[in-house]
Design goal:
Length: about 900
Amino acid sequence: MKSSEIREKFLKFFEGKEHKILPGSSLVPKDPTVLLTLAGMLQFKPIFLGQEKPTFRRVTTVQRCMRMVDIDKVGKTPRHHTFFEMLGNFSFGDYFKKEAILFAWELLTREFKIPVTKLKVAVFEKDEEAYQIWRESIGLPSEVIFKLGEENNFWSAGPTGPCGPCSEIYFDLGEEKGCGKPTCAPSCDCDRYLELWNLVFIEYNRNEKGELLFLKQKGIDTGMGLERIASVLQGVEDNFETDLFTPLIRRIEALSKNESKISTRIIADHLRAITNLIADGVYPENTGRGYVLRRLIRRAVHHGKLLGIEKPFLYELVSEVTNFMKDAYPFLKEKEKEIIGVTKEEEESFLTTLALGMKYFKELMAKHQTDKLINGKEAFKLHDTYGFPIELTQELAEELGYQIEIEGFNQEMEKQRTQARLAQLTGREKDLSLLDLSGFKPTEFVGYEKYELETKVIEVFKEHNFVILEKTPFYGESGGQVGDKGVLSWDHKEANVIDTYLSPQGIILHKVDNLLDLKKGTKVKARIDLSRRLATAAHHTATHLLHRALREVLGEHAFQRGSYVGPDKLRFDFTHFHRLSNEELQKVEQIVNQKIKEKLKVEVLEKSYEDALKMGAMALFGEKYGKKVRVLKIGNYSLELCGGTHVKSTADILFFKIISENALGAGVRRIEALAGQAAKVFIVYRAKSLYEEVETLIKKYCNLQEEKEKLGGKKTIETNIFEVEFTELERIAQAVDHQDSVNVNKFLDHLCGRVEWLKERVTKAEKEIESLKQEKIKAAGQELLAEVELIGNKKVLFKEFKDYTLENLRVLSDFLQAKLSSCVLVLASVKEDKVLFLITVTSDLVAQGISAKNLAAKFAQAISGRGGGKDNKAEGGGKDPAGIHKGFEAVKKEIE
């Protein structure tokens, strides 16, 4: 039975048992505390924890999963993988043990027709209820039911919370696969028993005392690995011999020059993981999910090297994975181009250092032949200089019987992180590091509701001009949003707050321009710069709209990676591999401006962290959140956790305009944009600047046409249709007021088009004028032939011109040399009160000892200038036009 048929049969079977077929979730969980999806139940965890009510009581899914815990076993055993698919059925307060066991047995023995004699069962040793169901309802003899301890047959999500016993169904591969011990059982480490299906009966809640209390609502969570059931139904004893792997393995073998079953299987496994991770928006990085991906790619590249594959190859195999999995997961094919691009770039990056890294690794092997221990600094160099993940170094070392000093490596890693943190410290962070804030409580911030208030100074740091207030309306820089500015006033005195900082302990510090007599205990009036705060708020709310619009246009992989929100602009960094097209950028702009036009209500809801996630609020992976969080809700469009300040309605944003988009690093893009009054001013100013540029270019174009006509050329004027009515500038302002980004962009593009067209016409006219001048120069050259004089037997011309460029002199020289064959030409031009000169000598006269370079030195001296070149041609300039004829005489003497 094909793997695709197994998936379909499983889902259809449970659909027939009144289960709702739901799609599996992304490998990137919604829960930001979890690195990757490692089980089918993860998307239902809030239901099992009692945080959400289920929409359906019975559910079935096929879930793509990632687990790195057994990566060192991948390829070496028949059944371990980093990426796998889990077939599951779930019950939320509906059926329980008996039905779960009956369903599983029916599917395996009747639908999949697995012989009953090949199946064995393990139950939790204290779960007598499950044991009796297997004995009485299924009719299994006691000798095929194994009672195992908590380590094997009791599931829990953590030290506390929902948990319960489980029953596992095993496929017996036969005594010949076993260890031969009389105690051989499903708990044994040998290969005889293949675990097919785990049925978890969630019936307890473990409290902090470790006591097991019965849950009011019991649940079922089952999981069966597709790869394992496929091996059974396809009659093979190895997952890598199923149709899930064999096409890919054949492709890898075709590329290989060497043979290694383990390396081939590792590459096949990792490539499936790589493809699915990138499809779900994960990009190579040095931390978190990105590090998992980077490790997989680099490990696969290393094993490719072992197979004799010297060039990037993984990216060529991506289509093998997407083509095979596209029916079950169509989005893989849709994102194929992106997956290929990310994979290829990471492969190429690692291959540039892999050879050098392996050379260094071999040197370490030779150096430590006796102690067999690579120290932490050496392992860190492999990581830092050559890009070797520490796990890869460990694996390589262990294969040769060496060990890595991991503690030393971790110390070096932490040292580098510390240095990096110090190097990246902003002025704010450096200032804060100088203060002792240990005796202060977090500052009460009232700036969400109030913009000014009477308060009291509780500390002054005179050396650094910092003030701590009892309570404050000033927002301290955090979450990408800049700190407030404003004024502290007391006793008819004022101090300007030039910035506001937030310490890690939650203390808000006000940096002032002067302290005067401000001291601890002084009562002050604290007032923020309201217009600056409102401009910042417009940019901050616009950032949330931008984030949602990007995910809508590009896909759910577009996650925030960083931001800057100030009164002047916003900057937003996000995950995406390719440059955004003009169409995508304009679509994003249109969506944001449409939401501004809709005047959506902007609400801030205070919720528990769990309730916020339950609402569907987006949280950022790796961010630390307290028990209580602020949820920013923009209509029904955007829902994110955020502690910043915001407008009351999207209408307050006025307008949104993207001004740039570029790459920040591999897989990360940056958008800079404007909102509010800043956006309006930018657009009107930009339009006015373009309007003025059009006017200037039209005048220049007309003047050039006049000049062309004077030189004998044909005058052509075709600018009327490109003149701009000033009323058009009024219309663009109206388009901004109506959040009409389409017409704003059309008008700006139209103006840019006019500018470019005029620039082309100006350039064309300048070339035509230059061509006419060259013709005139050549005509003048014909007349100059009569002015050539003989010095000895040498033809020489001395001539001064007005407003000739060096290029004009070169053209004239070429013309005269062609006519005279043998000559010395000394040509000078006065242009803008400066002298340009060119001296050329034909090759026959150079052979007689006359050097243009030497002549130029004599001439340059007379005009207070410099010159240089070769024997046949020299040129230069000077600042004394009165010395030109003196220079001619000096050259004449030199020739004589």
